[in-house]
Amino acid sequence: MYDNRDGSTAPSFKRRRLDGGRFDSGRSTPRDSRSAATPMRDDVPAPTDEDSKALDRDWYMGDEFGGHVFGDDSHNPFADYSAWEAQKQEEIKAEKMTSRFDARREQRNRENDAWETNRMLVSGVAQRRDMGADFDDEEATRVHLLVHDLRPPFLDGRTIFTKQLEPVPAVRDYQSDMAVFSRKGSKVVKEARQQRERQRQAQEATSMAGTALGNLMGVKEDDGDSALPVASEEISKKGGDDKGDGKGEDNSNSNKFSAHMKKDDGGGSEFSRSKTLREQRQYLPAFAVREDLMRVIRENQVIIVVGETGSGKTTQLTQFLYEDGFGKSGMIGCTQPRRVAAMSVAKRVSEEMEVKLGSTVGYAIRFEDCTSKDTVIKYMTDGVLLRESLNEPDLDRYSCVIMDEAHERALNTDILMGLFKKILQRRRDLKLIVTSATMNAKRFSDFYGGAPEFIIPGRTFPVDVMFHRSPVEDYVDQAVQQVLAIHVSMDQGDILVFMTGQEDIEVTCELIQRRLDALNDPPKLSILPIYSQMPADLQAKIFDRAAPGVRKCIVATNIAETSLTVDGIKYVVDAGYSKMKVYNPKMGMDTLQITPISQANASQRSGRAGRTGPGKAFRLFTEKAFKEELYLQTIPEIQRTNLSNTVLMLKSLGVKDLLDFDFMDPPPQDTITTSMFDLWALGALDNLGELTPLGRKMSAFPMDPSLSKLLITAEEYGCSEEMITIVSMLSVPNVFYRPKERQEEADAQREKFWVHESDHLTYLQVYSAWKSNGCSDGWCIKHFLHPKSLRRAKEIRDQLLDIMKMQKMEMLSCGMDWDLIRKCICSGYYHQAAKYKGSGEYINLRTNLGVQLHPTSALYAGHPPDYVVYHELILTSKVYVSTVTAVDPHWLADLGGVFYSVKEKGYSVRDKRITETEFNRKMEIEAKMAEDKKREEQRLEAEAERSAKRKPGAAVATNGKKIVTHGAVRKPVIKRRGRGV
């Protein structure tokens, strides 16, 4: 251990054993010497408000399983890796130069020793003696793994799992103009990115303050940092006590969204500032048709409510049902596709009902439950309701469920759609309300057997749609030109521009302002960006009324299609593209790709110009492209994403044959088979595709199957305490922060926590050091760590601990035996293993995909281990592996025997082929035995039914249900918890 400037302790790492018998000596790198030359300062800047907001956005805007979606690293402090990588490469080059001289010296010593030995033998002073080579020299032997391409019988290609046999491409025509332009990207955006990089490099090259050379030349550091908040000041503002939970107080709610929600402070539109909440309710279109709407709900079990954004369907429907008495027989649930929507809507409804959030009105998202025993109206993500159905198949606690924003066709929404078809047959007292924008409403009605549609009327005005005459190659540049043409030559009215993401939006805003400044006395224009990662207070600015004589130009992502409505929009500029999450089978993960939108999206965007008056829509693509290159509807998420979690959930719900499940749009066959293969490789499915006991346990954890398996197998390795900490740290946004003014100091502090054989163990070290220092915020700030991330990791750890106790899993600790932890990590990630190829490159053993260690990894600067497993991929200009652990190749062969085996001496290709043939023969025997067993069960069931027909009034057990026959009528009677037989 070593002492810090503040008297606290942080880990120092001793020489530890690596795979294959090698050791890591905790070497001193060039960064260590640089850090010594630049001592740490006491005024360490605390995370700014923007850092904290970015952290919250990263948490609340993520998907339900916490997975990383590649292509959206705008809020990642290490996303700009190029400088870090270049710096590391220089350090490695310096080390190689040193080691090259050492190698020459060592070679000379060996030659001298050989010459002396030879002289001694020739002279007769010494004699040669043969020694037995029966000792185990781990250093001299390099282990090689053989990779097997083995598949279970249920994935032999003969079994059909879905009605959608062909894959659904993300683009209608990959050779079309729009598809080609989307892959190329915008030229002006690339130029802006390169210019920023050049400016940053120039700034770093001219900044010598704080370096050894700068001190020698007398260059003083900039005093600008003195204005930054220091740790002590931050702590004093919080009340003087910097302990997180050191005094035993309950901080379980400190990170909840509800704990730090602020009251409205005058933001929003003029209407919202001038009217009370009760008056605002009465002006909503939904309030005007309340009686008719409630009558239709009372008369039907399923109803489709169609209404535009801003009609009040999300906030008012739950209140209408509550006031009509639906809350007396059960809860009123409302699902949302996004976490931030579930929380913000719950906040709004609680304010309108004048109750405390978490009492009558509450919300629930993954790892955060803000409800109580008094909760009647519950907003939640669709993933939360899906998990509740595991323990309560009939959702008995609910009297009515509203599935909001169903037109977005989120993955969990589609699964719930199919489940509700079965639940509604068993529970005639349950009401289901599906809300949608105008698009796709008929699909929902047809899916539920012609359920009635109730349309909430809204005012719409005609929109003049204009297509571009020729294909547009650079949509950002053309959008800027169109905005300026509208602003300079057309009547008053605000402009709404649709772009793909944050970078496109920021470049568009900068270009508009720059070209506007180049004009002579142009009209005033207020340029306002909006995207999901933007802080809520900045998002609210788009609703503010512009000053007289000033036109607003709002540049937005597809969040402005249906999720919000801005008054005063008269002109819409549609680039024709959006970012879509698409499954990449080669990488085995989801990526964000820029793709052409659908015709339905284009119509929805154009309609934004006709909300408050007649408008115009300028589409930056041709009419021919609209008809021939765009899909009619957006591809549902279920047809373009990884389905491992979905398949595991359906199997846990008792869906044995996925072909029988009622999907609104069935997923492609290859996506299903890939997901089932991944689950089989993890041991969640057996050789016949049935759920294993391990798979059933894995489904109880609300996270990725690999992480679930880590928690379960940790009990076997005796490291549950450590593994639950590692998994919790992997479930939160990045715990490290890098202020731009102090990046080198932040990097030096982070390296103090490094365990050079594992990034997973590095996270364990960070958490353990934080706990040993009393969970102090001050300690976090001095070590450039996010206190909020660590507190959130602690909350997740407590919830995972509760789940493990419910599963009757024993909590064990392995102490400092970290090899056990690495072996356990290998058991959950052996399907994501890579072998060192050379020149800093690794090769994925299964897919042969070339990857590199991310520059922020603890393994990056040291001697590269032969074999590693990794948590995730990061896709930028290269493919990087992140959160990496070095593993022994024998572990891979033992734990992932279905994929790997150690290449023994004399082992030939023929032996490998014999091994695979024996495996396939064994699988075929198992499949035949299972088929015979199933055929026998069907025969016995058929005999039982025939016997029952001959004996009226008899009871026959079928599929776990009791069927009571009354003469010629047979009625199923289903047992439900709390309802009797």
TrEMBL record:
GO terms for cellular component: spliceosomal complex. Residues 1-55, 184-274, 930-962 are annotated as: Disordered. CDD domains: SF2_C_RHA (cd18791). Pfam families: DEAD, HA2_C, Helicase_C, OB_NTP_bind, WHD_HA2. Residues 482-654 form the Helicase C-terminal domain. Residues 18-55, 188-201, 234-250, 261-274, 930-947 have a biased composition (Basic and acidic residues). This is Pre-mRNA-splicing factor ATP-dependent RNA helicase PRP16. The lineage of its organism: Eukaryota, Fungi, Dikarya, Ascomycota, Pezizomycotina.
